[in-house]
Amino acid sequence: MAGIDTEDDRAPAGRSSKDWGAFFDAHHNAIWRYLCHRAGPTVADDLAGEVFLRALRSGSPPSSGSERAWLYGTATNLLRERSRKEIRHLRAYARLNVPVEDVLDQDAVVDRLDAAQLAPTVAVELAKLEPNDRDTLLLYALTELDYAGIAVATGAPVGTVRSRLHRVRRRLRQTIGELDIDPAGTGTTEPRTA
Questions:
Q1: Residue 141 covered by a domain
Q2: What gap in Å lies between CA 45 and CA 34, rounded to an integer?
Q3: In total, how many domains does the chain have?
Q4: d(CA 52, CA 48)
């Protein structure tokens, strides 16, 4: 009967279809946004579906509290499968000459010019990073995960997550500093302390 869970329409690992629907509703938007930031909306649509398909096929994700981190880990693994294509995309983006539209707000124009100048360099630097370092940085920048959540998503110890982030941030700050760009919009070219 429609709307009633029977033995035949139950999801794996004892979760009902209703439970899987609630699980999907609770996490889909966050996973999709992460994937969208990393790979664009079209790819995010495909990969978000694949993340939940893998969750469904695996039976049951970890207990509540680490479900989202587990899903981020699955999403990151799917992205890693596409890493060669992602690196090509970042290198192509770095070669783009992004035009800045005329805007009446002079501060906004300056900010956009700085961002336009900085974006290709950041894209090149992201492409140069080891996949584990890039994944750690992007999980930190694009999701709400803390160090422990990133550790679950990447399968690395929390200390490794911290050291990866420190190393990558230092490298990016050095690159930004070489360009003499104000990364924080503070009126100074001194890097912000983290």
A1: yes
A2: 11
A3: 2
A4: 7
